Prior knowledge:
The protein is mostly helical. The chain has helices spanning 6-14, 18-38, 43-59, 73-92, 101-108, 114-137, 140-151, 156-163, 167-191. The chain has a domain at 1-111: RNA polymerase sigma factor, region 2, helix turn helix motif (Rna Polymerase Sigma Factor, Chain: A, Orthogonal Bundle). The longest helix has 25 residues, at 167-191.
Amino acid sequence: xxxxxxKSLIDRVLEGDEDSWDxxxxxYSRLIYAIGEKCGLSADDCEDLVQEVMRTIFNNKDSFRYDxxxxxxxxxxxxxxxxxxxxxxxKRDDRMVAMDEEAVLxxxxxxxxxxxxxxxxxxxxxxxxxLMELREKVEPETFDAFQMYVLQxxxxxxxxxxxxxxxxxxxxxKNRCVKYLRLIIDKYRNLDPEFCI
Length: 197
């Protein structure tokens, strides 16, 4: 999944371009699902959450105009997600039906605020996009060494043995991937300031 600048993608979605809608869905459905999971929703509820959020965005596309100067798209998107998560909480607990959104969130998630969940999952989403591009840029063995050593936090000797390479190669591959990853993130940040970790 390549990162598409939010403004150009949203503009095309608003114009009714189906391919752009598919790209939008692919870019954000996993993020929405992950937020639902972190909020304690079941797998079925997470699937429904994705559909509800996407339906809300699609149904409002005629009146919505994205202006980055007016606010972040992330804030707009996660606002919709929070509202829909509250709806799921209200369905589970009749006592929450009459509560406003803030009260529902306080009652349902006292130890893990939804804003923090949304921010954490946004960062994970951005990192995953960058990692997918990194995987395409480097040799499979290089990416595997990086993944095992950095992401899975395995010992260099264990990584070297698993991939039949030297320990020094593990460090070389890690440094190469970190360099590329910084370039990828900088490139996306220049295209879209919201692309940040």
